[in-house]
Amino acid sequence: xxxxxxxxxxxxxxxxxxxxxxxxxxxxxxxxxxxxxxxxxxxxxxxxxxxxxxxxxxxxxxxxxxxxxxxxxxxxxxxxxxxxxxxxxxxxxxxxxxxxxxxxxxxxxxxxxxxxxxxxxxxxxxxxxxxxxxxxxxxxxxxxxxxxxxxxxxxxxxxxxxxxxxxxxxxxxxxxxxxxxxxxxxxxxxxxxxxxxxxxxxxxxxxxxxxxxxxxxxxxxxxxxxxx
Length: 228
Hints:
Layout: H1 11-18, H2 26-47, H3 54-79, H4 85-93, H5 96-115, H6 124-129, H7 135-168, H8 173-192, H9 204-227
Helix pairs in contact: 2-3, 2-7, 3-7, 3-8, 5-7, 7-8, 7-9, 8-9
């Protein structure tokens, strides 16, 4: 995948674009992401006899894959515009999306392995992998979760920076329309994350976090649309 200049891409795009010997289209990169993760999930589930983990694992891979595609669509839409330099640097060059992803991931891991096991009900990890989870299965699950959580952090950051852009800058009607189209892509990805809700429906806190994130992204984006 041919990438733009450094500092004008998401971390995901930069990683794919800098792998030695790898020069594929965005569509191919996303397809390889899905096939690689899905194949790994099916193999691990078969080896360790974990049928209960296949469907939620596949859903997480689907969400991450759609997220990758929409991230590329969003960034290309923004780069096609004559965007203010400060907005572009803040959106792509600050790496705040990674920081938000790391914070969310650490919080999630702490909840899954420290907080939730102390509850009276069966934890999500035990329900998926049994009372003695295989190391390889847990490792793969965390890798997929990071893929999902990083994109959630990116989604949230894009909505915040979009709101800042709407408050600070004024554009002509056509440019405003195209920015709104980019923002709509981001909202669409937030909505896709609701695919994960059925698999955590027994955990009210996780349901609230996922739903609350979507509501927050929609609210912030709506504010930016009203301001533009």
